[in-house]
Structures are given as structure tokens and as C-alpha cells.
Fold this protein.
Amino acid sequence: MPADTVSVSGWGRTAPTNARLIRPRTYQEAATAVRGCGARGGIPRGLGRAYGDAAQNAGGMVLDMTGLDRVHAIDADNGIVLCDAGVSLHRLMEVLLPLGWFVPVTPGTRYVTVGGAIGADIHGKNHHVSGSFSRHVLSMELLTADGEVRAVGRDTPLFDATTGGMGLTGVILTATIQLQPVTTSLMSVDTERARDLDDLLARLTTGDDHYRYSVAWIDLLARGPAMGRAVLTRGDHAPLEALREGTRARREPLAFRTARLPAPPAVLPEGLLSRRTVGWFNELWYRRAPHARTGELQSLARFFHPLDGVPHWNRIYGRGGFVQYQFVVGHGREETLRDIVRRVCEHRCPSFLAVLKRFGDADPGWLSFPVPGWTLALDIPAGLPGLGALLDTLDEDVAAAGGRVYLAKDSRLRPDVLATMYPRLDEFRALRAEIDPRGVFVSDLARRLGL
Amino acid sequence: MKDAFGIPQSLLVLGGTSEIALATARRLIARSTRTVWLAGRPSPALDQSAADLRALGAEVRTVTFDALDPESHETVLGKVFAEGDIDMVLLAFGILGDQARDEREPLNAVRVAQTNYTGAVSAALVSAGALQSQGHGSLVVLSSVAGERARRANFIYGSSKAGLDTFTQGLGDALHGTGVHVMVVRPGFVRSKMTADLEESPLATTPEAVATAIELGLRRRSETVWVPGTLRVVMSALRHAPRGLFRRLPI
């Protein structure tokens, strides 16, 4: 089994630490690694798309699970797949789309593994309809700290601790997932502009129920009366009838087409994304969006994963990296949301990726992020002066409003506010103490927040 | 662990009564530092420093540490690291000495050298080893512009800092790729109790300014930090000035 000490960081490229990287090729190798991981423990890692320090483990072991990526069985009649946890959603789409099935939930990138999707209990643009990823997981196999493999079914404490548990209950080896039927690989998309935040909230509140997928991009550098102006894109999988006769799309309605641009160079100056450049980008992005357009056909990749077209896009933030801040506050807490948007605007955060959506019902994962309400996610260069202090005060407001921040994206939360945000944290800790008394599974995130 | 901005949650200060170190600790506590170890010789000043930081909300512990007793460093620092990860070690002890007296009494000069250089070499190596087995952490070493070029007025102190500075640079190279970040901080004249009796030099700075520069350096994972930053340029020029001219400069 090849093992090497390497520097490991999250997608935001802040706070890297060193760990022994082990890439098991069999379940047996994974079990051997877990049994012999040493005093500083280990943590499973997928494709490294968690923004912060969730899949790094200073001085210990990191288990790269991407070598275990087999799709074991597909029930094409009922839309159920059994696969290894190291399989990416990209691979699943390649395999499943020709059969008329789609992953039940996808985040803004296809390059996440099934194991990561469960560990972070990811959500997508369809959360208000479909909930988070774990809702569609029928069962899984978990390699626990004792080196044994356990079958974990729904409605068990171990299932609820593992979905959203950030890899700290064990290594997910396989999962059985219920899929979503589709007849084409295209999306039918409606686009509209919202002139300010109130307009946006109103449109989302009244319109979301008509769409399976919904998301709003906000221009957080727009000020004054335009504060919170946004482009709203919503849609559903296009039915076969929507595709014109005689076109290539109609002939191969389930083809999975993606495009990739070249990656940015490895070294870029910090400060490329300044208030000015991002301001220009946002202005352009807002103006090029139509006031209202319905039924536009878009590829899956364009609708769900526009940034996947640029490999290593995280490099554009330069050596200093960036932080992503994502929080949720409940319905009826629009005042808190407005206040936070106002303060982010006043701080002039150069964020070209600011996304607002409505969450539907929560799933039972103890540390699962989504709760019914509003969630806002924004990318900000880590070097922005005063950013740490600003986000700390936002945390307090979010916690006071009964909301929380997303652990898969966190790289800077203070541990004292965590328990308020995640009321089932103590149960999670108790279960970990029980099944992993030696503390085999540990990550930098777990150390930082005392999970 | 450090957060995305390089702010450590736990800090070990070697030289727990240093004004620069305390200013740095205050600044970091205002962000997200929660645990602070102050290492130094037991004294009312050390206890007072701990009490001051505690009042800011940090959990502060003191530990007996003597730079002049390198044999004890492994044991003393080993105990601190055994209590939990240390995200940042700030090596801040050092004495200025009295140049005129030290020239007359070589044993005093030796004491300056032993404290500032020998003691620091030992403490830094012990800390670096512990940080390396953690796989993360910053070792921040307070050097001085005095180490850049020997000056008539303080070359005993300056030579000890020159040695420390060179040592730290090499240590940083040795630890490159291990996850441990080593940062040399070169302040100019700092207004503090150490320099209270001295005439102020140009570009004088304050402990708070040094603390600010350290915080920025942590975020950027800098290897060298000058305080104030303009000293980088000034010293670059002075380093190349001919000796005959340099001797006559009013610095």
C-alpha cells in the first residue's frame, strides 16, 4: 500500500497540514489502514471539494478513497444503484444517464464522491423538493474504528450520525442509493431578474413550489436601492417532447455532454479578485441575464455545474486562498438574512459567487446542515481585511436566529458557537465515544471545533 | 488548529513577559486564540502577564522555563506539548545587555549570547520537533534588524540576533514541506521597557505594530517579516553601504 507524507488542504486552500496519504485499493487494505493508523488517527477523503479542513488530519493519516470506485449493481427498473463510496457523482451520471436515471441530489460540482456526499449530507438546488442526499440513501456499509464493517440501515442512530457526520463515525465503503428518473439529459430553465433583495425573496417564496430546481445568484457588490439584486434560475428535467424533432439532442436524448476549459496556471497573484474586477464581473453577469426567459434548454453541466468546466478554478484566488461562508436561517427570519446581506454589502466583499436558495424539510442527520429556511453561500478571498471579525459577528447573529453554518464549507468557525447551531452535537459526541473510544477518526475540523 | 486566517487556537510564548509577545497574544485572543502558555522564569511579572491575558477571556497557564538551562528544555516543553496541540510557538525571549559594560566584562557578553542564541537554538529545535510530529503549526522567532549589520552601539546583542536569524532561516528551510511554518520577524527599534533607556532610532515602532505584522504574516504564511515594512528596503541599502561610510552614519 503506497503511503506518503503530503501537504493536504481543502478546496479553499487555506490552512494546509501534513499527513500520511494512504490510498486503499481493497476494503481489506482500508481496514488494515484504520487498524494501524497510529496515535493521531485518520480521516477518509474523497475528491477534496470540502472548502475547509474537514478532510485533512495533521500529523496523522488521510485515507484517499477515490481508489475504491466500483459501481457494483444497478437496478435499472427501480432506479437503485449499489456502488463504492469512492465513486464520483460525475461517474454515476456517466453510467446512469443512458439508463434514464439521474443522481437524486447534486451540489454545484459533480466532482464529489458518494462517501463525501453522505458525510457532508450535501444538498442541491432541489432541496425544497427532495431534501438532502441522505434522504435517498437506502443503506450503507461502514468501516468502523475497530476495523469491522457494519451494515447501516435507515432510522438507526449510526445512520443519522454518519449522514452529515463529516467522516468521523467511520469510513463509508458502499452505499445503496435511490435514483431520480429522467427522460432527457437536458434541463428546461426559466431565468428572471430580481431588482433587489425584497423582490428576490418574494419571487422565491411564491414561485419555488412550481419548480424542482431553484437557485438565485446575488450581486453582493451592488449597493443602495439595487442591494440584493439577483438572477434567478429555476427549472426541471426537460421532457422528451421539449426537444425538437430532427436534432442531435432528440436522437440521443440521454447523452451526457460536458465541456472542459484549460485550468488556470498553478500560481496566480493574490488580489486578482478585487472589488473592482468582481464588481465588473457582477455587473456583466447581471446585465447579460434576461429579464425573463422561459423554457430555455440547457445541458445538465451548464445548469448544475458551471464551474466544473474550469478545472482547479480555486486557483484564481491566488496563494492566499478563499473561504466560503454558508449559513441557513429559518423561515420568518428574513430580518436576519436582510441584515447579513446588508453588512456583507457594506463590507464590500468581492464575492462573485453568492448563492441564495430556500431549503425544504430537514433530514434526520444529527450534524446535517439543511433546515427549512433561507441559505446563503458566498466565496470571499481570505485576504480581505477584517473578514475574520466580520464573519465572527455574522456567526453570532446566525446562531441567535436559530440558524447554523455548513461544516463542509467551514474553515474558521469558533467552537463556542457550534453547540448552539447544532443542538444534537452532544448525542453525536456520545455516539462517537461509544463506537470509537480511542478516537481513531479525527480531522483538523474535528480538532478545531471539538466535534 | 489554525483557522483559515492562520489564527492559532493555542499559543506557546517562550519569554512570557516580553511586551511584543504579550501584544501579539492580546491581538490573537481578540480573534480566536483560546489557550495560551506563558513560559518564563517564575516572577510576579509572569503571573501578572498571565492574569492580564486571562482577563481577556483566554485560558492561560504558566510554565517554568529558563533559556540559560538548555538541558531542561526537552522536559519542560515536552510537558506542554503533551497536554495538546500547540498551533503556534512564539520565541520571544532575549536580553539587550549593556554594550559598554559587556565589552568590559566578557562574562556578561557571554550571557547575552547564551540567552539570545544558544538558548534559542535549543528551544527552537525542541519546539520544531514537536510541531513536526503534529504535522502543523507555526514557529515564530523574534529576530531584530540589529542582526542585519553590526553596529558600534550594540554589536554584542546584534551578533547574537544575527546568529539566531541565520539559524531560523536554515530551520525554516529544513522544515519546508513538513507542514511546519517558520517565520522570522525583524523589528526595528521597538519602544518598550527593554529600550526605555535608549535614544530612539529612526523608524521606531511599537509592540502593537509588531503584533499586527505577525498576524498578517501568519495569514500569508510569510517567511520573513520586517516591522515596519519599509525597513526591508532601508536595510537592503544599508547592508551594501561601504564600511567606512556605514561607520559614520548617525544610526
